[in-house]
Design a protein that fits this description.
about 450 residues; eight-stranded mixed β-sheet; seven-stranded mixed β-sheet; 20 strands; about 35% helix; disordered C terminus
Length: about 450
C-alpha cells in the first residue's frame, strides 16, 4: 500500500473538484483519481445566477467569470401548451457579491478542467489518467466516532503502470453514475423509472429564430420531453428524454435515425433545427436513483454518485456543487473532531435525502401541470392528455409514490374535472409503491448546524 492521505476523491467532475478544492484549502491532504473527459460526449449544462454564491464559497467564481462561457438570461418553455413562456433570471446577489441577472451555458469537459485546475492550485494532487478498480471499506456501516479507525484502501492503476493501493481516512465517491463505491450495495434505483436520453449537437449559421437565443429551451411532447442548451450563437445541443419502458419510440437502423425520428415528434424544437446541421448524436442512461446509505465511517457518496435528480430541474451542476460543500464540511468535522463524526455524517445524509425528495415532489408537480394544461387546451381529447402524462419520461417520478400530503386533495380535484376517466390517472399517480416511499423517506432529525464549520 502506498503512502496514506487524508482523503481520496474518486471522480473529477464538479462535485469531485469542488470537494477536493475545499478540503485542500482547509489543510487536508487530498488526492483526486479521475479519467480524461470524452469531449465528443460532453454535455452542455446551465449555471444559473443562483450558483454564484456556491462558486464564490468554493473559491472558483473569478475563474468562471474569466472563462468566457456563453452567457444566458433565462429559459423559454413550452410546457403542455403551444404558447411559449419566457422565464428570465432575476438578479441574484449575496455575501457581498455583485447582483447579476445572467448565468452561463457551459460544456462540461471545459468546466471540469477549470475546476480541477482550481483544486490543484489549492493543493490537491490530481491524477487524470487513473482507473479505480475497487475500494476496500473495512467498516462501511459504522457511523460512530470511536477513534480514527482503520483506513479505507483504494486500488487503482495509471496508464502503463501497475496497480497500486492507497490508504485514506475517507474515500469520497464522486464518480457519478459509475458509482465506484455506491454500487457496493448502497445504490437504490427508483422503481419504474427507466429513462433514456438522446443528445445531438447542431449548428446553424443563421441562428435559431428565438426571442433570446441564449436561453435554454424545454418542450413537452406526447412521448417525452425535449430540451436544448446553446453553447454559442450558432451551436446548440438538443436532447430528448423518453421512458425506456413505455415509450413508442421509433427504433431506427442507426442511432442517428432514432434520434431524428424522436426530434420529429416535437413542434418547437423540431422547427428550430429543421435547417440546421446535425454533427453527432449519442445516447445515455438517465434513470433516476438514490442510495440506501450516503455516508459511513470511511466513505461519502457525493454529487451524482449519491443520487441522480430529475433532469427537468436544470440544476444538476448546482446540486453537485452544493453536495460537495456539505460533504466537505462533514468530512472536515470528522477529521478535526472525531467525537462529532456521527452528527456530521447524519447531517450530510439527511441533506442528501431531503434534496432528492424535494426534486421528486417538484417532478410530480411538473407532471400535474403538464396534464392540466394539455386537458385545458383540448378538453374533448382526454386520451391525448392521458397519453401526454402516461408516456412522459418523468412520469415514474409520480408513480414512485413520493407525493406530498396534499396529494389526496389534488386527486379529488382531478376527479371532479374528469370523473370516471380519472380512474386511469389515479392508477398512474397513486400505486402501491407509495407505502414504500413513505417508509423509506420519513422525516429524520437534522442538527440545526454542524458543531464545527470552518
Amino acid at each position: 500500500m502506498s503512502a496514506n492521505v487524508d482523503i481520496v476523491v474518486i471522480g473529477g467532475g464538479p462535485a469531485g473538484s469542488a470537494i477536493a478544492c475545499l478540503l485542500a484549502q482547509w489543510g487536508h491532504s487530498v488526492r483526486v483519481l479521475t479519467r480524461a473527459a470524452d469531449r465528443a460526449r460532453g454535455a452542455a449544462e446551465s449555471l444559473p445566477p443562483s450558483t454564484r454564491k456556491l462558486l464564490a464559497k468554493i473559491g472558483v467564481l473569478d475563474a468562471i467569470d474569466g472563462a468566457h462561457f456563453y452567457r444566458t438570461t433565462g429559459n423559454t418553455v413550452w410546457w403542455g401548451q403551444r404558447e411559449g413562456h419566457v422565464e428570465r433570471f432575476a438578479a441574484v446577489a449575496g455575501d457581498a457579491l455583485k447582483a447579476v441577472n445572467y448565468g452561463y451555458q457551459v460544456l462540461r469537459p471545459e468546466l471540469d478542467r477549470l475546476l480541477l485546475t482550481s483544486a490543484a492550485a489549492a493543493g490537491a494532487e490530481i491524477s487524470c489518467d487513473a482507473h479505480v478498480h475497487r475500494v476496500q471499506l473495512t467498516e462501511p456501516d459504522v457511523l460512530d466516532g470511536s477513534g480514527r479507525g482503520a483506513d479505507a484502501g483504494v486500488e487503482y492503476h495509471r496508464e502503463r503502470q501497475p496497480a497500486t493501493t492507497i490508504g485514506c481516512r475517507f474515500a469520497i465517491d464522486c464518480s457519478g453514475r459509475a458509482g465506484v463505491i455506491a454500487r457496493q450495495g448502497f445504490r437504490r434505483h427508483q422503481p419504474g423509472y427507466r429513462t433514456q436520453a438522446f443528445i445531438g449537437v447542431w449548428q446553424s449559421a443563421s441562428g435559431w429564430n428565438l426571442p433570446d437565443e441564449t436561453h435554454t429551451l424545454v418542450e413537452t411532447y406526447e412521448d417525452g420531453w425535449a430540451w436544448s442548451v446553446p453553447l454559442s450563437a450558432t451551436l446548440r445541443q438538443v436532447g430528448v428524454a423518453v421512458d425506456g419502458g413505455t415509450t413508442r419510440i421509433r427504433r431506427g437502423p442507426t442511432l442517428n435515425g432514432t434520434y431524428r425520428a424522436e426530434i420529429g415528434k416535437t413542434r418547437e424544437l423540431g422547427a428550430r433545427v429543421s435547417g440546421a446541421t446535425l454533427d453527432r448524436v449519442w445516447a445515455c442512461d438517465a434513470s433516476l436513483f438514490s442510495a440506501h446509505q450516503y455516508a459511513g465511517s470511511q466513505f461519502l457518496l457525493v454529487g451524482d454518485a449519491a443520487s441522480c435528480i430529475d433532469p427537468l430541474s436544470s440544476f444538476g451542476v448546482k446540486k453537485a456543487l452544493a453536495s460537495a460543500w456539505v460533504g466537505a464540511v462533514a468530512v472536515h468535522t470528522c477529521l478535526a473532531h472525531p467525537d462529532r463524526q456521527r452528527i456530521a455524517l447524519e447531517f450530510f445524509t439527511n441533506w442528501e435525502r431531503q434534496v432528492y425528495c424535494a426534486n421528486l415532489r417538484r417532478s410530480v408537480e411538473f407532471a400535474r401541470e403538464a396534464y392540466g394544461r394539455a386537458y385545458q387546451a383540448d378538453p374533448g381529447n382526454t386520451e391525448a392528455a392521458l397519453g401526454l402524462v402516461r408516456r412522459r419520461a418523468w412520469l415514474p417520478l409520480a408513480s414512485s409514490g413520493l407525493l406530498t400530503r396534499k396529494a389526496p386533495a389534488a386527486a379529488a380535484a382531478l376527479r371532479r374535472r374528469l370523473r370516471a376517466r380519472l380512474v386511469l390517472i389515479e392508477a398512474l399517480l397513486f400505486p402501491r409503491s407509495a407505502r414504500w416511499a413513505a417508509a423509506s423517506y420519513g422525516a429524520a432529525r437534522q442538527p440545526r448546524s454542524l458543531p464545527c464549520r470552518r
